[in-house]
Structures are given as C-alpha cells and as structure tokens.
Amino acid sequence: MGLISAIRNLFGRNKPWYEQPRLKAMRSLIEIRNALRKENLHDTEDAPLTGGLPPAAPDSPQRKYRQTEGTYNDLKFPKMGAVDTRFGRNFPLKDTRPDSANLMNPNPRLVSKVLLTRHSFQPATILNLLAAAWIQFQVHDWFSHGKTDAANGEFEIPLDAADNWPKRPMRVPKTEPDAHPSPDASRRPTFTNHVTHWWDGSQIYGSHKTIAAKVRTAQDGKLKTTAGGILPLDDQTGLDLTAIVDNWWIGLSMLHTLFTLEHNAIATELKRRNPQWDDEQLFQTARLINAALMAKIHTIEWTPGILPNPIVQLAMRVNWRGIAGEKLQQLFPGLDDNELLGGIIGSHAEHHAAPYALTEEFVSVYRMHPLIPDEYSVRSVVDGNEITHFAFPEVSGKNARKVTETLRMQDLFYSFGIAHPGAICLHNYPKHLQNLHMDDGRTFDLAVVDILRDRERGVPRYNQFRELLRLPRVKSFEELTDNPQWAAELKSVYGEIDEMDLMAGLYAEKLPPGFGFSETAFRVFILMASRRLKSDRFYTDDYTKEIYTQWGLDYIEDNGLKSVLLRHYPELSVALEGVENPFAPWKKVR
Fold first, then answer.
1. Phi then psi for 278, rounded to 5 degrees?
2. Residue 448: how many CA atoms within 13 Å on its side-chain side?
3. According to the model, what pLDDT value does residue 181 have?
4. Which of 80, 162, 296, 550 has the highest count of CB atoms within 10 angstroms of its CB?
5. CB contact burial 403-416 (16+ within 10 A = b; e otherwise)
6. What is the C-alpha to C-alpha distance for residues 466 and 470, in angstroms, rounded to an integer?
7. Is cis: bond before 55, omega within 30 of 0?
8. What is the pLDDT of residue 441?
9. Long-range pairs for 54-62 at CB < 8 Å and ≥24 separation?
10. What count of other Cβ atoms lies within 10 Å of the Cβ of residue 311?
11. How is 380-404 classified by DSSP, letter by letter?
C-alpha cells in the first residue's frame, strides 16, 4: 500500500487540485464544477418563470437586445433572471432555514470587535486599489437586496457596558422581505434581487425603466456626461447620475465614469460605421459590447489578479476562450459547441440543475470589505508628488462628488494603480466601516451587518457550508488557521468550531498558493462565475455578429481594462508601461 500511495501522490491523485500537475489540476477543476452544477443549484421559485409575458416575436427588440428589467434572456421563460425575482440557493432548501434561536449567538458585535477590527492595515501587495473598487462595481451589477430601513423591522443587538456605541441597543434593519412570499408555509424564507441577475451592466444602465431613461441622452445612443468628462450631478441624491449609487465612494465614481465614457466611445464608432442606425440601435448594441467587455475583464483580468495561481489563470482563460483560443475558433466554428475547447463564450446556453438565478451563498462569498483601506493618498501622474490625502469618510457618500469636481480622473486612477487594497483576512476590516456614517444620518457597524445578514438569510455556518460543498469539515481552530492568536480568539468567541460564522471562517482559512481569498469561497465562485456566462444567451447562443456586429465581437476580443484606461486617459501610459494585468501594481512615476 505504501508503494501505491507513493505512486498516487506522484501523479497528484491524493493531493488537492491546486497541488496537482497543471493538466491534472484542470481536469480536477472541471470535475468539481460538473459536480457542483449537478448538486449545488437549487430553485426557490414556486412556479415557472413565464411571468405572464407574451412570446417574443421573431424580429422584436426582446430577441435582439438586453431588456432593462432582465426579461427575455431565456425566451421560453422570459422572467428568468429578471429584476425582482428570487435569489436561488447553492444548497438544498432544508439546509437554508435561518437559525432563529441562535441569531445573536455569538453576539455579532463581539465578532466585529474581537475578530474583525483592523489594528493596522494589512495590504494585499499582489493587487492595486482598482481591484477593490472593481469588485464593488461588479457586485452592484449582480445583486441588491433592496433598501435597508426600519420599515422592514429591526434587529436589536445587545451591547456590553464597555461598548462605546452611541445608541443602545444597536439597531440593524432587517432585509427587505419577499413581496410575494411562497404560499407554502413550510418553505424557507426567500428574498428577491432588486437588480437583474444577469451580467448586463445594470449598475450603469439600470434595472428599472425610470432610471434607465434618466441616464440616457436619447441621441446617438449615448449616456449623459458633463463637458468636463465626468458624470452629471443628480440633484435628487447629491451623487453622480448613474443607475446604482448604493454605498457610494470615489472608487465607484471612477469606474462608473470610465465605463460610461467607454459606452459613448463604442456608440460613436457604431454610428460612424452604421450612419443609418437610430438612437435605440446604437444604444442597445453599445450596451451589449460594453457589458461583454466588462465581463471579459472580470474573467481574465480581475480574477487572475486576485487569484494569481497559474492553474486558476489558465482556467479563467479557458472559461472565456477555451483551449483552442479565438483564432482556431474562427477557423473551426464548431469548436464553440465544446465548452472546454471553445470556451463558454459562444457555446450553447445551459442552466443545468435549476433555473438561472444568483444565489444567497454567492452573495455571501463576495463579502470582501477588508479590501477597502481607511486612508487615501492622491498623487500626480505627471511627477508622482502627493496632491492631497483623504480618510475614507472624505471620499465616500456625497463627499465623493467634491473629489471628482476638484481632482483629475487621471491622477485618481494613477493613485489607485500604485496603492494596495487590504488583504481579505481577520483583523483587517476598515475601521470607518465599523463606524459608518450614512448621508441620511444613520450609523452602522457594517461588520455586524455582514455577520447578521448570513444568519438572517439562512446561509449555513462555516463547517456546514464546507460539508455541503463536499469539502471536509475543519476539526479545530488550529487546523483552520496557522495563526495561533487567531485560533485562540476564534475559540474565545465561538467556543466550538461548528458554531463559527461563514465570514469568520473564510477570513481565517489558510490560503492555497497564489490565492487572495479562501478555497471554500472559490468553490462557489467556480460554479457561479461559469453560470453567469453559461446561462446567458447573449454570451452563448446569441454571441454572434448578427447581434453584436463583427466589429463589436472584434472590439471585445481586442480590448481590456488597460486599453480602456488609455483610450480615455492617455496620460496613464507611463504608469501602465510593461504592466500585463492592470489590477496588479503599476509603475510609480518619479
């Protein structure tokens, strides 16, 4: 048996996938994803997602373009993935009932103070600060649980005598409930997504017709900008005029501005090539191209940036382009039929075990607030000298507008490019987010909210979460982390390993080589990252020149974040020279 084990180990059969030889590891990842597609997609809807909508006519806009509300992506079930449909689950519904008896056990404020408080900033040196802004920019495209206010009801968080929180008890609004809960009382609580589930740029374009119309010029297919090249001021909110402004800060303002400008550049070129097109044709086609470009950037630039493991880098390229690559696909179009050879893009749409929806568990693994620093230095891209310095409250909420009106976008992007985000780990939660002052006067400990949301929504705690993903349960805090202080603190808060919250476990977990977040979270990621593309006909069956134009397909293929940045801010060229991944640290100007 010793010899057999040695042979198996030599060929990687007894090793985790990330320690296996590259080709074997790729095969293992595919097997893991296939098992997840079969076992870890669960429907929460009560009826087929037709929504009473009529079939789309052969030449109708519903067939050619993305719809604001996300309808008609699946032509047989036109409400699938639309705004105000339910979040799905990655686990059987019987395993997603909120543990109401232990909702405050342990106290979320204790978890925040003892385990999450940032005593000193721990940087993620493999990344630049754009990576932190980017993931929030994308998250706003993917999901929103709606407004958090007292009208939904409130949780009361008890505080100990030494806690200096200004009001007692601490109050956290409950998640906005499902407007149409299941008539079956035995069903688990469900929540609806207030934006579309699709990867469609809805953070810029909107998921509701009112805001969608408000951001458009209604001329030449363009979105509104000012003469100075920034977003207009929305007088109603005091923030930038764009579709999603929740949790607004300067990083979001920068990326919303950049991809609004990119949309307009695409629309301009489409008009030059198609002078007979009207505003709607130009807008809708530019939106398709811009959204696909953002999806590509996330897949083959942001993901390999935060997970610079060579196996993951290869896997993400294969996800998008396949092993064959773009040129062979052009020579042999039939390769698109094979997801491995031709990539997901251009393959046939498939929902696998459940109708398409983003999941509550997917929301949970993207709780990455430690990426946000507390301090920001703005430097000149011309000479590298510091222009000014901010604390987070000075660049968030309505204060972000003051920054964009007084500083150049070139300098802001350069400053983000040479700065680091925080590492996703314990004791690295932004101090200003633990005492977050909203523009409307409310104050939150966002770490408390993060912990409470998983419990409220029935997301299993860490060890059960792992078991439901067919990962081994962790037997002790010492096995979970190689940091003795963390292990002791986790034990003091939770007592038993099975009581540990998902987020605490994800932040404490030992990371595989080249990983910026935990392998437990990565399991959900490899399922849902592929699903966002595979279920979407605009990335599969309708990723064609008839829908995008041949120029549009070529544009997506030929561009990435670096070229987008240089198109709109050419002064950044000196800092981006030689930088392969624009989410990695840029060159400093001397």
1. -90, 180
2. 24
3. 86
4. 80
5. bbeebbbbbbbbbb
6. 6
7. no
8. 85
9. 61/280, 61/284
10. 23
11. -TTT--EEEEEEGGGGBTTHHHHHH
Q: Which residue has the tokens 């909107």?
A: 206
The Cα 43–Cα 581 span in angstroms is 37
Nearest to 137 by CA among 382, 366, 408, 332: 366
Length of the chain: 590
116 neighbors 430 (Cβ within 8 angstroms): no
| pLDDT at 316 (0 to 100) | 92
* 29, amino acid identity: L
Beta bridge partners of 89: 42
Which residue has tokens 């699709």?
198
Q: Which of 130, 588, 125 is nearest to 379 (CA)?
A: 588
Residues of the chain scoring pLDDT < 50: 1, 3-12, 328-329, 331-332, 334-336
Q: Which amino acid is at 75?
A: L
Question: Which contacts of 521-524 are long-range, i.e. CB under 8 A and separated by 24 or more positions?
Answer: 521/365, 522/307, 523/32, 523/36, 523/469, 523/471, 524/90, 524/359, 524/361, 524/362, 524/365, 524/469
Q: Catalytic one among 42, 140, 145, 256?
A: 140
The CA-based angle 408-414-415, given to 5 degrees, is 90
Q: Are strands 239-240 and 375-379 parallel, antiparallel or unpaired?
A: unpaired
DSSP secondary structure letters along 528-580: HHHHHHHT-TTTTTT-SHHHH-HHHHHHHHH--HHHHHHHH-GGGHHHHTT-S
121 CB burial (10 A radius; 0-12, 13-18, 19+)? middle
Q: Is residue 140 annotated as a catalytic residue, yes or no? A: yes
Token reading at 309: 């493991």
> From CA 123, how far away is CA 125, in angstroms rounded?
6
- Burial class for 247, CB neighbours closer than 10 Å (0-12, 13-18, 19+): middle
Q: How far apart are CA 315 and CA 89, in angstroms?
A: 24
The residues with which 172 forms a beta bridge, in sequence order, are 155
Residue 187: what pLDDT? 72
Please enumerate in sequence order all residues whose Cβ is within 8 A of that of 176, keeping only pairs 6 or more positions apart, or say none: 145, 146, 147, 148, 152, 191, 192, 194
Closest to 200 measured CA to CA, from 111, 97, 96, 69: 69
Beta strands, E only, 307-383: 375-379
Residue for token pair 């940091």: 483
Copy the structure tokens of residue 170: 């601490």
Amino acid 434: pLDDT: 97
